[in-house]
Amino acid sequence: MSALDPAVELARGLWVTLKSMFEKPVTYQYPEEKREVRKRFRGRHELHRYENGLEKCIGCSLCAAACPSDAIFVEAAENTDEKRFSPGERYASTYEINMLRCIYCGYCEDACPTEAITLGDNYELSFYDRASAIYTKDMLLDPVPASAMLTPQKTETGVFTRSVPEMENPKD
Ligand code: SF4
Ligand code: SF4
């Protein structure tokens, strides 16, 4: 080891510090500044509605069956034209996801025949107790569009007979 080595190492260290002073910061001032997520990001679940305000979820429980961590609980009830929540025969009277169990795999999204449930880009999922980790239907359901009515709705007889909407390309 030469006598100059400590000075060289010191200069190298200072150079790294100096160089990083001119680099763009990679930190985000969260929560004021929120980081944009990638398109494939899977965050908090959302239950969607059609434009007329009816709920897309038909209470079929396929998402619960597909869930590998048994995080979803669905209970279905019958629709009537007097009191309709979703197209078709049934709707989810109870829909809950236990966020402590969820592993954000997206299988529920893939299994859903009406595209009712998707994993959105919200990653703010903190809670203080176990009970708050159960996300209920009210928490997950999209707000009603401005031009639509809340569910349940009174609908015309014989209009909303199909639970699964006709899709242009069902293979999509
Ligand atoms: S993302 Fe996966 S683990 Fe979470 S609720 Fe859906 S199927 Fe279950
Ligand atoms: S979210 Fe989809 S798969 Fe799950 S119960 Fe509702 S309609 Fe069925």
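^ iron/sulfur cluster complex. The pocket of iron/sulfur cluster (ligand 2) is lined by residues 57-63, 74, 92, 111-112, 114, 116-117 (CB under 6 Å). The first helix runs from residue 5 to 21.
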